[in-house]
C-alpha cells in the first residue's frame, strides 16, 4: 500500500492543473506562450466587433450623399414671385481729366527766369506760371516811346506853321496852295504820332505774351519746363491743367449694356488704389461701338478728390433704372457648359432643367431676367445631385 501511495504522489507532482510540465523538461516553456496567444486572440476579437459596429450602424449618415436606389429625395423648393429691383451695370475703365488744357508759349519765347507752379498745384485763371526774360523787349518799348515824342514834336511844328499861314492868307501874303501844303504836312505828322503809339502798344502786347499764364483755374497735372530753359511758340506744352480739377471715368460697356443707360444716370466709382467710393454722373455716351471688342464708352463726370488720379484704374456701378423680375438665391442657380439653369418641379413631382438669364446681383438674391415667370416651384439646394427628369418630394422652404 505504501508503494502505491508513493507512486501516485510522484506521478502528480510534475504537472500543473492545466496539464503543463513544471519539472524543467522542455514542456515547461509552453505555458507563457499559450497565455500570450490567448490574450492576443481576445484583443483581436474585440477590435473586429468594434469595427463591425461602426461599419454597420454606428457611423452617422452623410446628409449630402446621393439617395439610394429606389429612394425619393426630399428637396426644398420656393416660388420666387416677382419683385422690383433697381437695375445696375458693373463696368471698369480708366480715369482721365474731364477737360485737359495744354499750356505752352504763345509769344516769341525766350529764356525762362522762373516757374511758379508745379505738378499737383492749384492755379487760378490768369496766374503767371512761367516768367520769360524780357530785357530786350523793354529797351524796344523805350525806343518806341521816344519815337512818339519825335512824332509829336513834328506834329506841333506843323500845326504852328499852318496856324500862321491861315492868318496871312487873308492879307494875300500866302497863297491857298501853300495853306493846302501846310495842312497836309500837319496831317502827316499827326499820323506818324498814331503810328508811334501803335508801335509801343504792339511791343507792350508782345512783351506781355512772353510770360505764360493759366488759361483757367484748375489742377496742374504735368510740368515740363525749368528755369534757364529756352522756350518758343508752337513747341511742346509746358503744362497740362485739369480744368476745375474735374475728373471722369471712361467706363467700357458692352453694346447691350450701353443701350440701357442714358445721359444723367448716376454711378458709383471705386478706384483700385482706394476703398473709398465716389458718386458721379454719366455726361456723355459714345455714339459708336468699337468693331474689335464690341464695346463703347460711358464717360462719368466726377468732382475733384485726391484719390482720383488720371491714368488710374477704377470700377463703376451704373444705375440702369428698375426691373420687375423673379429673385432667387445663388444656391438655386446651376451652371455648366450650356449656360445657367434651374430645376423646376412639375405637377408630376419630377424636376425639369430650365435655362435662365440672370441680371443684377442684389443683397436679396439674383435677378432672373428670362426663363421664369415667378410662379414655378424652383429647387433651392442640392441641384448638383439631381438630373433632368428625377422624381423628388418637394418641400416648401420656410
Automatic annotation (TrEMBL):
Belongs to the membrane fusion protein (MFP) (TC 8.A.1) family. It comes from the Bacteria. Keywords: Membrane, Transmembrane, Transmembrane helix. PANTHER family: HLYD FAMILY OF SECRETION PROTEINS, MULTIDRUG RESISTANCE PROTEIN MDTA. The keyword Transmembrane helix applies. The lineage of its organism: Bacteria, Pseudomonadati, Pseudomonadota, Alphaproteobacteria, Sphingomonadales. Residues 328-393 form the YknX-like C-terminal permuted SH3-like domain. This is Efflux RND transporter periplasmic adaptor subunit. InterPro entries: Beta-barrel_RND_2 (IPR058792), BSH_CzcB-like (IPR058647), RND_pump_MFP (IPR006143), YknX-like_C (IPR058637). The keyword rRNA-binding does not apply. Residues 251-320 form the CusB-like beta-barrel domain. GO terms for cellular component: efflux pump complex. Residues 109-242 form the CzcB-like barrel-sandwich hybrid domain.
